[in-house]
Each structure stands twice: as C-alpha cells, then as structure tokens.
Write a structure and sequence with these properties.
Blueprint: E1 2-4, E2 16-20, H1 28-44, E3 47-54, H2 57-61, H3 74-83, E4 88-93, H4 96-99, H5 103-115, E5 117-122, H6 136-146, E6 149-152, E7 157-158, E8 161-162, H7 165-173, H8 177-184, E9 189-195, H9 200-203, E10 209-212, E11 224-232, E12 235-244, E13 255-260, E14 271-281, H10 289-308
Parallel strand pairs: 1-4, 2-3, 2-5, 3-4, 5-6
Antiparallel strand pairs: 7-8, 9-10, 9-14, 10-13, 11-12, 11-14, 12-13
Helix pairs in contact: 7-8
Length: 309
C-alpha cells in the first residue's frame, strides 16, 4: 500500500474507486465498506483509494475538548488498511482552514482533480465539507455531471447493534474488551515503550514491564487486570496487564504494567504491543503487599485459563 501525506503527492488515477472518512478502529462496519471498494475496483480494473483525515477533525475543531480518545494512531490505522488490501491511502492534513472547504469544493478539488474518482463508496449517514453540509443526497445529485458514481452502504448491524467507533470506545472505557473485540473483529491493542519502574513487581515475584504510551490521544482501557498477549520482536507471549494508580501502595500516577509469562529479558527502551483478551477483575486496594501477592497468583491462573480459551 502506498501512503500519501497530502492530496498534492498523489498522481491522479484513470479509475479510482474511493472511500473517505476517519476510519478510527477500522472496525467491522468499516470493513464492509472496504470490501465493497475492493469488489468494485476488481470488477472494473480500477485501484482502491482511502482518503482519511489526520489529526482527527474533533481534535482540531474542538481543541479545548481533551476527552476524545482514539482507537488508532495514524500508523496503526495505516497498517490495518494495508492488511485489508487497500492500494492507496491519502492522508489529508486536517486544519481549520481545510474545515472551511465546502462540500462541492471537496468534491471538485479532492475527489475529481486530485484523485480521479470514478466510483465513490460511503458509509451510512456520511457527511463532509464545511459544517458537514455534504451528504449522500448531494453526492448523488452531482455525481453524474462530474463523471463518477456514488454508492451508500446501509447501516451495518451486528446482533442488531450498529457498529461505531464511539460504541467501541465506550466498551473499552468500561473495561469490556470482549464487546470491543466483537465489534473490531480483532482484539484491541496498544503499543508502548518499556520504561523503568520501581521494580515492586519483581520484589513480589511478578516482574513487570512498565509501558509509556507515546500518543496521549490513544485510548487506554479502564483500570483493572487483563489477560493479554504481548508481542516482543516477532514473538508472541501470554501475560497479564495492570492499569491503575496502585492503591495498595498509595500510588498517585496511573501506570500500565505487564507481567509477561515465561519471559526474562532486559527490554528497557524497546517497544511492546499488547492485545487485550479478557478483563480479569477491576482494580482493588489490598490490606498489604502479601495479600496483593496472593491475588496476583490467582490472577495469573485466571489469565492462563483465559488465554487457553
């Protein structure tokens, strides 16, 4: 997959089959759209193009609102789109100036002049352009005169619940990684740099790698203990991960610590990727470190059982 960091870097295609959006999470609903894009491109001998926006529009239009957390960094999103077989990813740097582009200007400048769109596939209730004035109805009315076709994919339901990035975020914020996996079609993951901690876990017989997440917009699930899988280099390990402020030792800073099973290497300064498989329990304050140690023994047994499943 080729990545273009602005429409100006893109060479107009003879038959571009295009979709656009933020695609945060690249979840099952998104994949229905992507599958249709690939199907149309294959039928007409065209090439697939995803147009996305970075930073996320809300981060630009409402900078005072720091509550939005994202399911993907741009790099993660690009990798997921590559796995879906998309040929071209066009990143539009989203700015306040760009947000003033009208829907018709977006159609002419981006879809037609820059990309060469011949077929546009969009999701249900997709809006674009200044004040989100652009819609499927506007596209359908203008597309024939501009030389391209447009198709809308209806709302995607799984077990009668519409898939959306917002619903996945809410599930993760409550620790419900099982529902998140159901909607994403894969386990949710985070990546972080291994940094030095106070080595309290090692003292109790459960050494942990402390993770620092570089992007402060990346969503970290709710506090608790999770069964996880850990990617180090090109090898996967089982593990259990803690998120919280360590109330048993009166901690004040939220930390992310992972105990990797059957692993004993110095990995400070390296990057780990962790996938969340199951919430084992919520965070709790124990009477002392010995009680916490006993609980960690139980947590490990539960994690091993969860990973077997």
């Amino acid at each position: 997959m080729k990545i273009y960091h602005s429409p100006g870097d893109f060479t107009r295609l003879p038959f571009a089959v295009v979709t656009s959006g933020t695609f945060d999470g690249v979840h099952l609903g998104h994949r229905k759209i992507l599958d249709r894009v690939k199907e149309v491109a294959q039928r007409h001998g065209g090439e697939t193009v995803v147009i996305t926006f970075w930073p996320h529009p809300r981060l630009v239009l409402k900078p005072e609102d720091q509550t939005l957390k994202l399911l993907n960094t741009f790099e993660e999103k690009a990798e997921l789109l590559k796995e879906q077989g998309i040929q071209h990813l066009v990143r539009i740097p989203f700015t306040k100036e760009f947000s003033q582009l009208s829907s018709l200007e977006f159609i002419h400048k981006i879809l037609i002049d820059a990309i060469g769109t011949r077929k546009l596939v969009i999701g249900y209730d997709h809006h674009f352009g200044k004040n989100r004035e652009g819609s499927f109805e506007l596209l359908r009315a203008n597309a024939p005169a501009l030389g391209f076709d447009v198709e809308e994919i209806p709302a995607q339901d799984i077990d009668h619940v519409t898939v959306s990035s917002s619903k996945i975020r809410r599930a993760l914020e409550s620790g419900d990684v099982t529902t998140a996996r159901h909607f994403l079609g894969r386990s949710y993951s985070i990546s972080g740099l291994v940094v030095k901690g106070d080595k309290l876990g090692r003292v109790m017989g459960y050494p942990t790698a402390n993770l620092a997440i570089e992007s402060h917009f990346k969503l970290v699930p709710a506090d608790g203990i999770y069964a996880v899988r850990v990617l180090h280099g090109d090898r996967w390990y089982g593990g259990m991960l803690y998120i919280g402020n360590r109330p048993t030792v009166n901690g004040i800073k939220r930390t992310i610590e992972v105990n990797i099973f059957d692993f004993d290497s110095d990995i400070y300064g390296e990057t780990l990727t962790v996938t969340f498989e199951q919430l084992l329990r919520t965070d709790s304050k124990f009477r002392d470190l010995e009680a916490l140690k006993q609980q960690l023994h139980l947590d490990k047994q539960l994690a091993l059982e969860a990973l077997k499943r």
